[in-house]
Amino acid sequence: MENQGAGVDAGILGPLKAADRGQSVRITSGQQRTLLAALLLSANTLVSQDQLVDVLWDSKPPRNAHAAMRTYVMRLRQTLGAELGARILTQAGGYLLQAEPEEIDLLHCGLLHRAAQTAVRQRDWASAARDLERALALWRGEPLVDVASQRLRERELPAIGQLRLDVLELHYEVQLALGAHQEVLRDLQAAVDRHPLHERFCAQLMTALHLSGRRSDALDAYQATRRRLAEELGIDPGQEMRQLQQQILADAVVAPSGQTDARAAPAPRDAAPERERQERPAPIVPRQLPVPASHFTGREEELRSLDELRAGMGAIRRGAAVVTLVGTGGIGKTALAVHWAHQAAAEFPDGQLFVDLRGFDPAGDPLAPSLAVRRLLDAFEIPEERIPSEFEARCALYRSVLAERRVLLVLDNARDEEQVRPLLPAGPGCMVVVTSRQKLPGLLTGDAGLSIHVGLLSPAETRSLCERVLGQERFASAGAAADAMIELSGRIPLTTRILLASANAQPRLSMQEVIGHFKAVPSHLDRFETGDARTSVRTALIGSYRNLGSLGARLFRALGLYRGDRIALPAAAALAGLPATEAHRALAELTRHHLVTVEGPGRYAMHDIVRDFAFELAHQDPAEERAAVRDRILTYFLRSAEAAVALADPAAVRRFEAVAPARRPDVTVEVFADAPAARQWFVTERHAMLAHLAHAREDGFAEFGWLLAERMGAFMHRSGHWQEWAYAARCAMAAAVARADLRGEALAQLQLGWASDLIDQGGRTAHPPLVRALELYEQLGDPAGQARAHLRLTRYCGRRGQEAACRDHAGRALKLFRAAGDRDGEAETLNALGWHCVEFDDHPTATTSLLRSLRLYQELGNRHGEADVWDSLAWAYHYAGECREARRCYLQAIELDASLDQLGSRHNQAQTLIRCGELHLTTGDLTAAAGFWRRAAAILEELGLPQAVELRARIRSLAAGDR
User: Fold this and answer.
1) For the chain, which end, N or C, has fewer CB atoms within 10 Å of the first or last residue's CB respectively?
2) Region 287-297: what's the mean pLDDT?
3) In the chain, what is the greatest distance between 2 CA atoms, to the nearest angstrom?
4) Do the Cβ atoms of 547 and 359 come closer than 8 Å?
5) pLDDT confidence of 22, banded at 50, 70, 90?
6) Which residues pair with 408 in a beta bridge?
7) Is 355 helix (H, G, I), strand (E, B) or coil?
8) Which residues are in the Bacterial transcriptional activator domain (predicted)?
9) Closest Cα to residue 175, out of 256, 119, 260, 264?
C-alpha cells in the first residue's frame, strides 16, 4: 500500500485510541468503539457482517441488526475523519480496515517481535534489544479496557496477552545475553509474581540470580516454583527448569549468548594419550530406516516442505527441528517419511533412527516412552550397565548421547504428544519426523516446528502410481477403465496399491473386469480387505476408532447412519443426541484423528471407506439405538424445515396439512436469523434431506416421507428445484401406499402432480396424480384438501387451454376456500383464474379476478403472492396492448421479487424478467429487452434450467439485429 497518510495512528494496547493526521479522535459511542476495535484487531482482513453483528451485540442481535450495523459503520467513518475513516473499505459480505503495520500498535508490536526473533537467530543482540524495547513501549495499559463487547474480549484478549508474554520472554532473554542480569532482576521477579506458573520466567529469574552470584536464591526460586506447580496443577517443573537446576548445582549455567559463567567453568581435563584414542572403537552410526516403498509417487509439495525445514536447521537456535506428518490411516504418511528420510540421510551422518510407536495398533498397547528411549539407546550400543532404570535419568542419558550428533529420527505412528516429548533430542543438529493420525500441536513451537497434512493423492498422482505399478502400456490401454480405477481407489495410497496388486495378480483380466470384481462387493471397506493385518484398511480404522473418547466414538457410529455427503454441526448434534458444545468437541476429536475432514465453515465430510466402517460399527449397536439416531435426524430436518418456511414464506406454513410428530427433547431445531439464512439452510441441506426422505420407509419412519416432501415443497416450488421436488413426492407416495395411509398418499399425489405440472407445462404429465389426490381427499371428507386439488387442477387445465375445466375447478376451489375462511387459498385461486382468463381472451374477468387477488394478498401481508399478482396483471395489460400499464406492473413485480430474491422466488423473478423483456421488444426498446433477458438468463443458469440456453440464443439474435 502506498503511503496513504502518515498521520494515521490507531491503538488497542491500552485504552482504544485513534488519530487522524495528528489530531486525536474522541469516540464516545460504545458501539463505535466496539466496531473500531473489531476492525483494528483484524486489520487488512475481511470481517464479515455476521462477525461484526456478533461482537456488537454479544450474540444477541436485534431483528434489524445488519441495518443498524451498517449505520454504525457510516457514523464511525464520519467520526474517524477523512484519512482513517477512508481506510474502512466495504467489500462483499463485510468490511476491511486497511493499514500499514506501523499504523496500528498491535501490528507494530508483532512486527518488532518478529524482527527481534530474526536478530536473535543471527546473534545480533543489540538490534534485538532495540526492537524489543520499542515493542514494549507500545503498551499503554490493559487492552480493550474501554470496549464493552464481552465476546470480543473473550476472543481476542488471550492472543494479545500471549503476545506480551512472548515479547517479555524474548526481552529478558536478550538482556541476559547482553550481561544485564542484575538490571533485569527486579523486572523478572515482578513477572514471576504476576505469572507464578510461567516456567520460562521462573527459569530466566533463576539464571539472572545465579549469574548475579545469588546461587542459593536461584535454587530457592526453583523450589518455590516446583511447590506452586505441584499444589495448583499437580505437575513437576518441565525439562528446562530441571536441567537448569542441575546446571546451577554444578556451577555450569550457560547464558543465552552461549558464554559459560566464568566462575563455573570446569577445569580442562588432561588430554588422553594418542595410543588410547586410537584404540577406542569407532562410534556406532545406526541406520535403521525401513526399505522405502516401491513406486513412490507424488507428494512434491510435502517433500519440498521437509527439505526447506532441513535446510533451515542452521538458523534454529536451540533444540531439534520437529515436523509432524498427520493424516488418516493408509494415507501414506510412513511411506512419505521413509522416502524423504532416505533422500536426506547424507545430511545426518551420525545416524538415522526409526521407531514404530504403535500409537494406533488395534492388537496391542502403544509403545511406552521408557521402552522407546531404551531402544534408541540400544541403537548406539550403550552398555546396559550405563542405562539407568529411572525414566528421567534414562531420558537425560539419551539427550546426552545425541547432544553433539546430527541424527535423523523418524517416530512412526505416534498416539499423542506425551508419547513423543521424551524422545525429542535437545541438540540443534537433530531433526525429528513424527507421523500420526491426529494433530500434535503441542510438539510445534517456534521456528523449529512444522505440521504437514498428508491428504489424498491428486488424480494426476494416482494416475502416475497406476502407470508405475501396472506399466504405462497396460494402463494406457485400459481407456475409460483407467479413470474408473482412479475413482474406485478413492485416491488413498493403500487402497490404490491393493487394487493394483489385484490387477497384477490377474494379468489375463482386463482393467474393466478387475474393476467389475471390486464393484461387485457393495461395501467400500470390504472391497479392499486383504486379510493381512499389516495392509488391512479395516484394521487401520479400528486402531483410530479405539483411541476415541466416548463422545467421539458415539458421534462416529451415528455418522455411519447419516445419508448426506456433508454434515453441519447442528445436524451432527441432533444425529448423536448431544448438546452443540459436546458435538463440537466430538467433531474436533474426529477431525484430529482424520476420521472426518473439514469441508467449510462448520461443515464436515467422511471418506466413503471411513463411512462404511462407521456404518459397520453403528450396526453393532442395538436396533433401538439405531432407530433413535434415525428418528433424531429426521426430526431435526423436519422441524428445522418448518422453522425455515415459517420465516421465509409464512403463508405456506398455514397450508401444511400433515401433522408432525411430537418434538424430541434431545433434538435442537435450527434458529434462523432472517429469511435469507433460512433459504440458505434449505439450499445447503436439501440433498441430505432428500436422501433421508428417500430411505425413510426402509428406516422405519415412513410418515417422515410425506411430511418432509410437503415442507420441502414450499421451498422447491419457488426456487425452481422441481425435479428434486417430484423425486421427493414419488418417494413419499411409495411410502404412503405401502403403509395404506390415505392422507399421506393424498398429500404425496398432490405434491407430485404440482411438481410434474411445473416440469412439463403444457404437456400431459401430472393430471393422473392430481385427479387421484382429489379422489382421496373426497374419500377422506377433507374439503381443504379438495380445495387445494381443485386449485392445482385449475392451473393444469389452464396451461393446456381447457377453458371449461379450468373455470369449473377454479369455481369449486373458490367455493371451498371461502367456506373454510382460507383467504390465502382464495387469493391464489383468483390469481390462477385471472392469469388463464388472459389466455382465454376474457380481459374483464382477468383484471377483475387479479385486482381482487391483489387486494387480498396486500391485506394478508403475503409479499410472495403480491409479487405473483403484479406479474399476472402486467401480463394481462401486456396481452391487451396496454403497454404503459403493463410496464408499470412488471416493474412493480420485479422490484418486489428482488426484495424476495433471498426468500426463494428465483424462478418467478426470471419469468417476470423474460416477459418484461418481451414487452420492451414489442415497443422497440431492444437494449432494455436484452438487459432484462440477461438478468433472467443468469437466474435460470443458477437454477440449472434448460430455458437459459434458449434465452441466451435469443439475446445473441437480438444483438445480431434479428428480432
Assistant:
1) N
2) 84
3) 123
4) yes
5) confident
6) 352, 431
7) strand
8) 104-249
9) 256
Contact 788, 750 (CB under 8 A): yes
Instruction: Give the domain CATH number at 214.
Output: 1.25.40.10
Which triple of cell numbers denotes residue 936? 433472467
Out of 227-231, 684-688, 903-907, the most confident range is 684-688
In a domain, 361, yes or no: yes
Q: Please give the backbone phi and psi of residue 178, each rounded to the nearest 5 degrees, phi first.
A: -85, 0
Same domain, 211 and 317: no
Angle, helices 150-177/185-194, rounded to nearest 10 degrees: 150
Q: 13 or 65: whose pLDDT is higher?
A: 13
For 460, the grid coordinates are 494426476
pLDDT tens sequence across 843-901:
999 999 999 999 999 999 888 889 889 999 998 998 888 989 989 998 988 888 777 65
d(CA 748, CA 710): 8
Beta carbons within 10 angstroms of residue 794's beta carbon: 26
Q: Which residues contact 259 (CB under 8 A, 6 or more apart)?
A: none
Last residue of a domain, which of 514, 535, 556? 535
| For the ranges 292-296, 445-449, 667-671, the one whose mean pLDDT is highest | 667-671
Q: Are residues 701 and 830 in the same domain?
A: yes
Other CB atoms within 10 A of residue 328 CB = 24
Residue 61 is part of which domain span?
Answer: 1-174
> Grid coordinates 412488471 are at which residue?
890
Q: What is the model's pLDDT at position 466?
A: 86
Coil/strand/helix, residue 599 = strand
Instruction: Examine the fold and report which residue of 535, 562, 577 is the final residue of a domain before the chain moves on.
Output: 535
- Provide the percentage of residues in the chain whose pLDDT is more than 90: 29
DSSP at 83: H
Residues in the chain, how many? 963
C-alpha cell at 152: 470480543
Angle of the 199-211 helix axis to the 150-177 helix axis, nearest 10: 20
Domain shared by 466 and 531, yes or no: yes
Q: d(Cα 678, Cα 672) in Å, to the nearest integer? A: 6
Instruction: Band the pLDDT of 108: cuts 50, 70, 90.
Output: very high
* Cα distances (angstroms) measured from residue 878 to each of 72, 803, 829, 882, 928: 45, 20, 21, 6, 16
**Exposure string for 470-507, b = 16+ CB within 10 A, e = fewer:** beeebbeebeebbebbbebbbbbbbbbbbbbebbeeee
Gyration radius from the chain CA atoms: 36
Give the Cα separation of 756 and 774 in Å (integer): 16
Sheet with 408-414, side-by-side order of all strands: 352-356, 408-414, 431-436, 321-326, 449-453
**Residues whose CB is less than 8 angstroms from the CB of residue 833 and which lie 6 or more positions away in sequence, other chains included:** 794, 798, 806, 807, 810, 814, 845, 849
Which grid coordinates belong to 292? Answer: 522405502
Helix axis angle, 863-879 to 906-922, nearest 10°: 20
Residues 6+ apart with CB under 8 A from 124: none
DSSP3 helix / strand / coil % (the chain, rounded to 5): 65, 5, 30
**Range with the poorest average pLDDT among 25-34, 254-263, 791-800:** 254-263
Give percent of the chain above pLDDT 70: 92
